[in-house]
Amino acid sequence: MSGTPVLAARGVERRFGRRAALLPTDLELRPGELVALVGPNGAGKSTLLAVLAGALPPSGGRVERAEPPPLVGWVPQRPALYGHLSALENLLLFARLQSLEEPASAAEGMLELMGLPAGSQPAAELSVGNQQRLNLGLGLLGDPGVLLLDEPTASLDPPQRRRLWESLSERRKSGCAVLVATHVLEEVMGLASRVVVLVEGRVVRAGRPGEVAAEMGELGAS
Amino acid sequence: MRAARLLLGNDTRRLLRSPLLVAGLVLYPLVIALLVGLVVRYAGERPRVGLVDRAALPRTIVIGERPFDLKRLFEEAAEVELVRMSEERATRDLETGRVLAVLTIPKDFSVKLRRLSESPRIVLETGEGALGSRVAEKIRALVYAVNLKLQRAYIEANLGYVDLLRRGGTGKIGRERLTVIGLRQAREELEALARSSDPDVAEPARELAAFIRQVEGAVNQVDDFLRATANPIELRTEAQAGRTWALSAQVQAYALALALAFVALLLGAAAITAEREERTLGRLVRGLVSLGGLVAEKVVLVAAVGTLVAAVLSLGFGLVVETADVTGGQPWERLPLLLAGLAFGAACFGALGVLAGTLARDAGAAMLLALLVGLPLALAGIVPEGASAMTDWLRGLAPFASVVELASAALYDRDPWAAVGQEIVRLLVLTLVFASLARLTVRRLLT
Q1: Residue A138 to residues A81, A87, A148, Cα–Cα distance (Å)
Q2: How large is the average pLDDT for residues A169-196?
Q3: Closest listed residue to residue A78, CA positions, set A139, A37, A18
Q4: ipTM score of complex
């Protein structure tokens, strides 16, 4: 994939006290590409996504954004939402906080797109699957140019997973850059344009999905 | 600003949607107000004291030809509620605590009182414990007040005798009825004799007349001497610009500060850690709201809720005081000033709570930390200024003493503006310090 990166990590590292969660890492995201960030639990995937999203300041290095800066949607691994608000109220609040032009219609549209209940039921009382969909909906608000998804299919049933990947493919076609963190490589094999493997806070492999899978298969075989 | 306003609305909705919390925020100050009201009412209540009247006191007693309504005298001056009872019952009630003390009037009380020659004695027995000293104090005040009235009667009686000696005529001195010539008439008669042509009569008469004039001059001053020796030091009370002391004022100020401290500290800690618990903080700090804005929003939230709690507490306290008819109750017209000042106090406690939340990170730990911080600071605020260097240092750092001072001044100072203004400035500075520290540490919640 060619083009100017819309979002890039340049030597980004993150430490929590003495523990290094992410060693100096470089990563670029270009418009229309879907990059799969794979690795075992604790590899530093979520940390990298949070730093790229601006939710966590890096301990070193820098995060670069294209000009004009694209809207970055972030879907953390665990639902980040207000439990006392309904799904619609959550979407409406964040639409307003993002200063979207028509927050009410944006929130209602997302509610419909995600197939979320329209009632006044507090988000804390929604099923785990619905909470995860609301989490996704909050990340997708405002039609972001960059999407950072952390294990987005966790807690989703197979039809919901399928719909998610279809939705991401459509966004990708319209130029949205997607970075998906997952520990299941097979899940993104058919969709990803690149795969980056992160182990113990360090990028150990990067390339096309087939190449990376082959390398990892060989490693696994040996 | 807009984001902070949206978050403020969200937090308000969070509070309103928790019925238990809303009930707590309304009931808590009401319960505190009721308890404070009871404390104040009890403090203003007259202790019950048994009265054993061995002298069988008559309703009135004559002192120096002046009748005295003894019953009324005791009732008017009574700092205690005197309950007449038999000796046996008094002993029993004192043992069981039904009365806090027993006042015994001995048999010879009336006789000694009438004679004006020897001070009659009354005997006070108190129970053990802290209340005994309080009752003894009240009885001392009672005896002082009765003594004052009797003293005036004694002086008037004695002055009556002096006047009889001066002017002459018929009157009673003690029990004896006498007719005396009087100093004035004696002098006039001696002066007449002094004009006699017989020198043996005139000379001694002149000397005696001169002596009686001297005696008259001295006797004329007895009035002032008597009053002066009876009251070598006279206390005159004048109302000036200053604090109108009432127990209720102190108790209410402490209750307001304590209630506000705990509500605001816990709410501040809970409000900030809730963003971490719900993992929404990460979303917010991605350019939706600044960290300073987030801290400020929580402080404003706590200030608003704290002021409401203080308002409920003040209204509740006022109602309890009104219905219980407590002296020195709440001046209602000062309520707006009080609440305006307490808003700054709530903001300060709130900022401290937010700081505790950012340091502890976890909601439970934050609550515990807020309590652990709040309790010693509150106690340091109760310790009088100058008691120890350490508590003075703590008082300076903590908002508790300032809130107590502010509430006391706002409610009961005759001219409260200077004191209230000074404490508001102090609270503002402390709020800024705590909020700035919270702004520095709030990033801890992101990890």
Answers
A1: 8, 10, 12
A2: 88
A3: A139
A4: 0.89
Average pLDDT over residues B322-333: 66
Best mutation target among A19, A56, A84 (most B Cβ atoms within 10 Å) is A84
The beta strands (E) that lie in B145-216 are given as: 169-173, 176-180
Query: What distance in Å separates the CA atoms of residue B261 and residue B371, rounded to the nearest whole number?
Result: 9
Q: What residues contact residue B305 under an 8 Å CB cut-off, 6+ apart?
A: B15, B25, B263, B264, B267, B346
C-alpha span between A11 and A25 (Å, rounded): 5
Which of B278, B279, B446 minimises the CB distance to A56? B446
In whole angstroms, what is the distance from residue B279 CA to residue A138 CA? 13
For helices B19-44 and B247-277, the axis angle rounded to 10 degrees is 160
Check B278 against A82: CB less than 8 A apart. Answer: yes
CA distance B27 to A138: 37
What is the distance in angstroms between the CA of the first residue and the CA of the last residue of chain A?
31
Please name the amino acid found at residue A32.
Answer: G
CA distances for B399 relative to B217, B421, B425, B430, angstroms: 67, 14, 11, 7
Predicted confidence (pLDDT) per residue in B149-161, tens digit = 777 777 877 788 8
Q: How far is it, in rounded angstroms, from Cα A162 to Cα A74? A: 20
- Joined together, the tokens standing for residue B179 give 């007719």
Q: Which residues of A touch B (CB under 8 A)?
A: 16, 50, 53-57, 72, 74, 76, 78-85, 93-94, 96-99, 122, 138
The strand order across the sheet containing A60-65 reads: A19-29, A7-16, A60-65
Give pLDDT tens digits for B400-421: 889 988 988 888 777 888 999 9
Distance from the Cα of A205 to chain B's closest Cα (Å) equals: 27
Paired tokens of A57 = 């300041």
**Nearest CA among B293, B173, B246, B220 for reference residue B411:** B246
Mark out the alpha helices in B278-334 (DSSP H runs): 280-284, 291-324
Higher pLDDT, B319 or A65: A65
b/e map A201-222, b = 16+ CB within 10 Å? bebebbeebeebbeebeeeeee
